[in-house]
Amino acid sequence: MAIDKHGHLKIKVAVSGAAEMGFLGQVAYDKAKEIGREIIRQDGILVSGATTGFPLWAAIGAKEEGGMSFGLSPASNEVEHVETYRLPVDYMDLIIYTGFGYSGRDLLMTRSSDAIIIGPGRIGTIHEFTIAYEDLKPIGVLTGDWEDTDEVIKNIMDKSHRPNDKVVFSDDPKILVQRVMEMAQADKEKHKYVHMNDDHIGGTVGERVL
Length: 210
Hints:
This protein is an alpha/beta fold. The protein has helices at residues 26-41, 53-64, 78-84, 101-111, 123-134, 149-160, 173-190, and strands at residues 11-16, 44-48, 69-73, 94-97, 115-118, 139-142, 167-170.
């Protein structure tokens, strides 16, 4: 059985969006699933807030495509995740229980990812966007016929006085995923590492190439 010892080099794409989708139409569900599928088709790993709504539908798409789906929970354990926060455990290969509530979870989720895609959402989605924006992460914003998440984001960018050329907008999940993954890959290329070979396993950790 072949082992991919450099699986960590896959681009990790977080998906952010509304946990409650009652105000959205069917097209939002379809776009979320297609984003999840495209992340896997383009050899990435999906990361989410281990929540309901838009991120969950992206996770469903990722698993239907046979890929990996990781979640970061606001809860401190599975019982709290399910019984207190009332969040799902399905469609995720691994859930990390942060114990830091929603705001702390948002920070860890974005920091654990190489890029983030922003779907339609409300305050939590905007919070995750602002963290990623300030961290200069590649960000893809899904546009569409729903409440003006993308317009709010454009307004924030216009008034932030912080130029950032790593934000792209599109209504096409394939294009959006492709563009953020290209930017994330370019970021990785700037910080290459010498990785351990088989002789080093259990020995010295590889050194960073500056």
